[in-house]
Specification:
By secondary structure, the chain is α/β, with parallel strands linked by helices. It contains 19 helices and 14 strands. It folds into four domains: 125 residues, 3-Layer(aba) Sandwich (Rossmann fold), CATH 3.40.50.2300; 143 residues, Rossmann fold (3-Layer(aba) Sandwich); 68 residues, Helicase, Ruva Protein, domain 3 (Orthogonal Bundle), CATH 1.10.8; 54 residues, Arc Repressor Mutant, subunit A (Orthogonal Bundle), CATH 1.10.10. A hairpin with a 2-residue loop joins β8 and β9. It starts with 12 loop residues before the first strand and ends with a helix.
Length: 459
Amino acid sequence: MNNTSPPTDTHSLMLVEDTPSLQMLYRTVLRKAGYPAICATTGAEALAQFEEHRPQVVLLDLMLPDRDGLSVMSDILRLEPDTRIVVITADGAISKAVEATRRGAHDYLVKPLGDRRLVSAVATALNGARQASQVQTRLPADPLTLGVFDGNSAAIERVRAQVAALAGSMANVVIQGEGGTGRCACAEQLHSNSPRARRPMVTVSCSGASSERLWKDLFGLDQTGPQARSALARAQGGSLVLYEPQDMPQDIQTAMLKVLSEGLLPPGPDGEQEVVDFRVISVTGHDLRSAPREDGFNAELSYRLAVLSIDMPPLRKRADDIPLLAQSYMGHLARQEGKDFTQIAPDALAALTERDWPGNLRELTNVLRQAVVLHDGPELRAEMLPSALPGSAPEPVQEEPVDDPLDAFAGLTLAEIERQVIEAVIERHGGSVPQAARELDIAPSTIYRKRDAWEASER
C-alpha cells in the first residue's frame, strides 16, 4: 500500500536525533532506501535547519538535550502547519508519543526501531505530503467553494459584508439557509479570513449520526479520559464547525453546553483540563433561535451557538446573479472535465434564469456539469441542458436497481474484507496509522501487526 518512489528533493526529510550512533544508523538506513535526510542533534539546530530547508517530513526524537521535543514540534507546526512530523520515543514513554499525536504529529515510532518500520513510516509520510501539495495546486473539486459570493445582487452583497464584519470576531456564528446555498463554503470563508486561519477547521456532522458515534467524534471519551484526536481537541486554536447542531441528542447537548459555558475541555487522564480555544461555526437549515421551541433544542445552547448569524439567500432571491454564476461554474467545470466551453447562448441563459432552483447553487452546478460532460463546446445551448428545465418535456422516470452495498465484498474472505477496510481508512487519513486506528477504535499496534503479516504473506 505504501509503495512510493524515492523523493528527488534532498530537503524533503529532516532527522532530529541527539545520539550520534543512532543518528548515523537511521540516516544510513534511510539513504539506502532512497530517502536522504538532513540531520540535527538539538532542538535549536532542528529549528534552524527547518527554517532554512522547510522539509515536508520531520523525524523527531522527543528527548533532546536542550529542549523538550514537544515544544520543538509546536514551533515547527507554527512555521508550517502542514509538516508531517513522525515522533520517536522510548518504549517507556509511549504516553508522550500519544500526546504528540494529539498536538498534531502524523505518526510515532517506538525505540528500538526496525529498519522496515522506519522506512515505511517515512515513505508513507512523504507520499501523503506530496499528495496533499498536489491537491492544493489542483482545481477545487466543488465549484461551490469558488462561486458562492459571485454576483452583485443585494442579497449576496449583504452576505459579503457580514462575512467581512464577522470574520475577525471571536464570537460563535450560525450560518443558516436552505441546502445548496453555499453554507459550508461560507463557513470556510469565515475561517480562512479569521485570525485562526492557520489552525485547523474541524467539521462534525450532527445529522444522522448515532448518539454513541457523535459522542465519540466530539469528545473522544473513554474510560481513561478524552482520546487524543477528538474533534474538540483537534479544533483547538481554530474553528469547530457543527453541521445541523439541533440534531444532537439531549445528552450531547448537555455535554456541549457544559464545555462552552465553563470554557474547559473534558479532563484528560491526568485530570487536567485545557481552556477552550476554538470558535464554533454552526451550519444549519433551521433557525437556531427558534429551535428551542420547535425541536426541543436546549435553549441555553442555542444562545451560546447563535451569538452572531448569517442568512444564506436561496438562488431564487438572487436571480440577477445567475448569468455570472453560470458562466463562472461552466468555466470551472469545463476545465475539470477537459472540455472547451467558453460562452452561454442567450436561449440557454434564459432557461437558466427562469428556473426557481429549489436545490439552489448545488442544483445549478449539477445541471451545468451534466451539460458539460455530455456535450462539446465552445457554446452552451438550451438543447444541451437537462430536459427538466423550463420549456422541455420531462423524460419518463425509470427506476434504477438499488445496488447491494455488500456486492463490493462478494467473493472475498473476512480477512480480505478487513484488509480492504483498514487500508481505505488509512488512505483517508493521509497514511496516518494512529489517526486511522482512532476511527476504527483499535490500537495502532494492531494495525502495524496486521500490515507486517500482510507484507510477510506477499514475500
